[in-house]
Amino acid sequence: MVLDPSADVGRKVWRRCSYCPNTESLYLLEANANFVYVQCPLCHTRWWLDTGFGAGKQAEPSDVPPAWPRPGS
Ligand SMILES: [Zn+2]
After folding, report:
1. pLDDT the model gives residue 23
2. Whole-number pLDDT of residue 13
3. What pLDDT score was predicted for residue 28?
4. What is the whole-number distance in angstroms between the Cα of residue 16 and the centre of ligand 1?
5. CA of residue 64 to ligand 1 center, whole Å
6. Whole-Å CA distances, 26 to 3, 50, 55, 72, 73
7. Sheet arrangement for strand 35-39
8. Ligand 1 centre and the CA of 39: distance in Å?
9. Rounded to 5 degrees, what are φ and ψ at 61?
10. pLDDT for residue 53
C-alpha cells in the first residue's frame, strides 16, 4: 500500500494506529460529520475513525439550543 496523494503533513490526527506500533499521529484524508478518514504514515493502512464527537453525534437534550421564533413567523 502506498501513501495517499491527499496525505498532508499539515493535516494530522493525534491518534495511535490500530494496526501497527505507530503511536504518534495519522494523516487526515477526509472528514465527514464525526468520522475522519485517516492513513497511518507507518503501515499505510487507511480506515474511517469515529472521533465520537462532531456534527454526526446524536445531540443530548441539554445540547439542543433553544428554539427561537423566526422573524415574521
Ligand atoms: Zn499503522
Report:
1. 95
2. 92
3. 96
4. 8
5. 37
6. 11, 13, 21, 48, 48
7. 12-13, 26-32, 35-39, 46-50
8. 8
9. -55, -35
10. 73
Name the residue among 59, 40, 60, 61 with its Cα closest to residue 49: 40
Q: What is the pLDDT of residue 52?
A: 83
- C-alpha 10: how far from chain center: 15
Separation of 18 CA from ligand 1 center, angstroms? Answer: 7
Q: Please give the distance, rounded to the nearest whole angstrom, from the Cα atom of residue 33 to the centre of ligand 1.
A: 23
Which residues of the chain fall short of a pLDDT of 50? none
Note if the pTM is more than 0.70: no
**Ligand 1 center to 66 CA (angstroms):** 43
- Ligand 1 center–CA 67 separation, angstroms: 45
- Whether 27 contacts 41, CB under 8 Å: yes
